[in-house]
Design goal:
The protein has 140 residues and is mostly helical. It contains four helices and three strands. It has one domain. Strands 2-1-3 form a three-stranded antiparallel beta sheet, with helices on one face. Helix 1 (50-58) crosses helix 4.
Length: 140
């Protein structure tokens, strides 16, 4: 049976690139499913803010735990039992939501700045092509 994702699910890569964290928000197309390389963590929304947990799991503290919990063999992996044993720091739900909102706002600012930088790089590339044309492309 395949597991279908729901909004607010937290995903953890447990093979290969262990500890990559995903968060399912409204932008994820539905239906979407996970495979055996991903651990799904689903919380009671009245007690835990999943977005907060996704940020917590992406923190250096949690990433250190993922690295320490990795079973090294022919193929590195992390067991679902190890995922269940991850200890979360959970302040009150309102505090979790405030932290998640703050970090999300920073992510939005970073994305906006990244778009601006990409636009400047594209503009610069265009200017350089005009200033330094390839000899074969120079009109005679």
């Amino acid at each position: 049976m395949r597991t279908q994702l729901k909004e607010f699910d937290v995903l953890i890569s447990i093979t290969a690139d262990i500890g990559i964290i995903g968060y399912v928000d409204a932008t994820v197309p539905s239906p979407a499913y996970i495979n055996q390389h991903i651990a799904l963590v689903r919380f009671d929304a009245s007690q835990v803010c999943s977005k907060y947990v996704s940020y917590f799991l992406a923190s250096e503290r949690s990433q250190h735990h993922f690295r320490a919990s990795t079973d090294i063999g022919t193929k590195a992996g992390m067991s679902l039992i190890a995922v269940q044993q991850i200890q979360l720091m959970l302040p009150t739900i309102s505090e979790q939501e405030r932290i998640a909102d703050c970090l999300s706002s920073l992510d939005d600012l970073i994305a906006a700045q990244t778009q601006k930088i990409d636009a400047f790089k594209t503009h610069k590339k265009g200017l350089m092509q005009q200033l330094f044309p390839v000899p074969d492309e120079v009109p005679a």
